[in-house]
Design goal:
This is TrmH family RNA methyltransferase. With 170 residues, the chain is of the alpha/beta class. The protein has helices at residues 11-18, 35-47, 81-87, 128-133, 151-167, and strands spanning 26-30, 53-56, 75-78, 93-96, 103-104, 116-119, 136-139.
């Protein structure tokens, strides 16, 4: 059910048209370390019309991987954890971290309003200090010998579960 903007619409006109359709959750990427993966996440996050995409640290993103969707998204860059937590003050932060999970994504019965879903790098995940500041820690079950999902896949899985829970009743 993709929307088709008029071909002559500016990016700002498209952003304005999408604003009332945005969903009440955000995605944060903590020092992702892979510019292509960050671009892919921007593309996937656009498909779920997230409130914003927050980049923690100074990792760049590859615009070609976002397939132009960065033009329509609110992308916020913050330098560190303190700036991130100040930016999202008052909103619940859920760390998505397999090795320190308090519960499985499959056990989430509801996402809180305004939740910020925070993902770390494929190599290092999220730091213990960041996890300690999170309201919850969710793990995505894995069944092979691979240690992590690609970042765009993991974010897509969690955003899809958010959407499944919010839109299945409609």
């Amino acid at each position: 059910m993709a929307l088709f903007p008029p071909l002559d619409a500016s990016p700002e006109e498209v952003r304005d048209a999408l604003r009332p359709l945005r969903n009440d959750f955000s995605v944060a990427l903590h020092t992702a370390g892979n510019a292509f993966a960050v671009g892919a996440v921007i593309r996937v996050a656009h498909s779920f019309l997230v409130r914003e995409i927050i980049l923690i640290g100074n990792a760049p993103y590859y615009e070609k991987a976002s397939m132009g969707m960065e033009k329509y998204e609110t992308i916020v860059s913050v330098p560190d954890d303190d700036a991130f937590f100040a930016h999202v003050a008052g909103r619940p932060v859920w760390a998505i971290e397999k090795d320190h999970a308090r519960r499985s994504l499959y056990d989430v019965a509801g996402f809180p309003r305004g939740v910020v879903l925070a993902f770390g790098s494929e190599r290092g995940g999220l730091s213990a200090e960041f996890i300690a500041r999170a309201a919850d820690v969710i793990g995505i079950p894995m069944y092979g010998v691979n240690h992590s999902f690609p970042l765009a896949v993991a974010t897509g899985m969690v955003m899809n579960e958010w959407a499944r829970q919010h839109y299945s009743a409609r």
